[in-house]
Amino acid sequence: MEAMMTAGPDRLSTVFGALADPTRRAILGRLAAGDATVAELAAPFTMSQPAISRHLKVLEHAGLITRTRRATARLSHLEAEPLRDATRWLARYRQYWQESHDRLDELLAALQEEPAARPGDDRAGPRKDVS
């Protein structure tokens, strides 16, 4: 039986919530190339550094990044473990979807093998003469 729901969201829900925003996904993509400052992360966006900082707080709360100080710079670092957890959770459904796609492929192949109905074909039964 599934564990009882707790008062707050579980870690996986927090991770998926953080990933729901395209800006945060883009930030994670950038961090996959290496650590970066807020200014570096804000550069490709048309939003302020404080707005980027709010996105970083969401990512940090989800455990997707950690932030450290180096001299006067505050660097953000990608943390892979929460992404692995999300990937494992999604992988459980991969077989289900693969089987569904396989069944659909079989159905489409069977439909393509049936001869196409031709004009004048009497598959619908004999026509009644209306005089």
Overall outline: elongated
The helix fraction, in percent, is: 40-55%
Number of helices: 6
Biggest β-sheet description: 3 strands, antiparallel
Tally the beta strands: 3
Task: Write down the CATH topology of the domain at 11-83.
Answer: Arc Repressor Mutant, subunit A
What spatial order of strands do you see in the largest sheet? 1-3-2
Oligomer classification = single chain
Distance between the termini: 70 Å
Give the full name of the CATH homologous superfamily of the domain at 11-83. Answer: Winged helix-like DNA-binding domain superfamily/Winged helix DNA-binding domain
> Runs with pLDDT <50, length 5+?
1-7
What top-tier CATH class of the domain at 11-83 fits best?
Mainly Alpha
CATH architecture of the domain at 11-83: Orthogonal Bundle
Structural class: mainly alpha
> Strand fraction band?
5-15%
Can you give the mean pLDDT?
A: 84
Order of helices and strands: HHEHHEEHH
Query: What value does the Rg take, in angstroms?
Result: 27 Å
Question: Mind sketching the topology for me?
Answer:
Elements: H1 11-19, H2 22-31, E1 36-37, H3 38-42, H4 49-61, E2 65-70, E3 73-78, H5 81-91, H6 94-113
Antiparallel strand pairs: 1-3, 2-3
Helix pairs in contact: 1-4, 1-5
